[in-house]
Amino acid sequence: MKATVKWVDNAMFLGESGSGHTVVMDGPADHGGRNMGIRPMEMLLLGLGGCTSFDVMSILNKQRLNVVDCVADIEAERADTIPSVFTKIHVHFRVSGRGLKDSAVERAVKLSAEKYCSASIMLEQGGVEITHSYSVSEVE
């Protein structure tokens, strides 16, 4: 896996993934940026959310469950000192569908957290406390 990050100006950078997708990263005005893109640490948090969401949906789809929507709400705390690393992250999955079993969603979240999500496991090994929760709702 490869990626490239190119400086544009001030605190703005253009990131390109090995698969050819790009994203603008920029800092806030008080750090020389223009607030034109996502912050790098926000992107890291989104990467975690995307990784674990991909796992959860993959597991649920393999069970042929009728999932209509899956949203991961992510909240993080950072250290007050430099480096301002993540210290705690909580991921709450809101899964909705038809005839979903609570136990199936619980299992999918647990498998992602403990076995499959590379981003989550890597951050935990680095000392970040990561917790997960979920809610299941029925749709018509």
Automatic annotation (TrEMBL):
Mention any Pfam family matching this sequence.
Answer: OsmC
Q: Which InterPro entries match?
A: KH_dom-like_a/b (IPR015946), OsmC/Ohr_fam (IPR003718), OsmC/Ohrsf (IPR036102)
Q: What is the protein name given in its UniProt record?
A: OsmC family protein
Tell me the classification of the organism that encodes this protein: Bacteria, Pseudomonadati, Pseudomonadota, Gammaproteobacteria, Oceanospirillales
